[in-house]
Amino acid sequence: MSLGMFAAVAAGGALGAITRYAVSLAVGGGIFGIAGPLATLGVNVVGSAIMGGFAGAVAAGLVVPEIWRGFVAIGFLGALTTFSSFALDAGALLARQGHLMSIVYIGLSVGLSLIAFFTVQAAVAGLLAKASG
């Protein structure tokens, strides 16, 4: 990896994060407000569509310099939504290893991520309640 690639990923990431935050403000409810899931759903769907178009164009032979791949796919879309990267990985597994591996990956990614979130959320809430009580 070159310094230029790191800069491209960082610049794309900054723009993706700003875009994600702007969408959450536009939808309303702030970062943890009631409208948060709508903003997340929106950026996940749009980001996945953009990633699909980008990957399709590259697969069809469009020559995209590596630094631009880093800027768009890793930086911008990675910060806008990691779901687009998840969708790309699931699609790549489907194409290379078939339905079973893709389904296992999807199930493990969603299931384990939710288990990790709720487990740690409950543990931290419990610890903080004990510490303050």
Task: Give structural attributes.
133 residues, mainly alpha, 5 helices, 0% strand, globular
Explain how this protein is built.
This protein has about 130 residues and is mostly helical. About 85% of the residues lie in helices and about 0% in strands. The protein has a domain at about 5-80. It is built from 5 helices and no strands. The protein is globular and about 60 Å long.
**Helix content bin:** over 70%
Shape: globular
- Give the uncertain stretches in residue-range form: none
Number of helices: 5
What is the CA-CA span between the terminal residues? 49 Å
Average per-residue pLDDT, rounded, comes to: 88
Quick description:
By secondary structure, the chain is mostly helical. The chain is built from 5 helices and no strands. The chain has a domain of 79 residues.
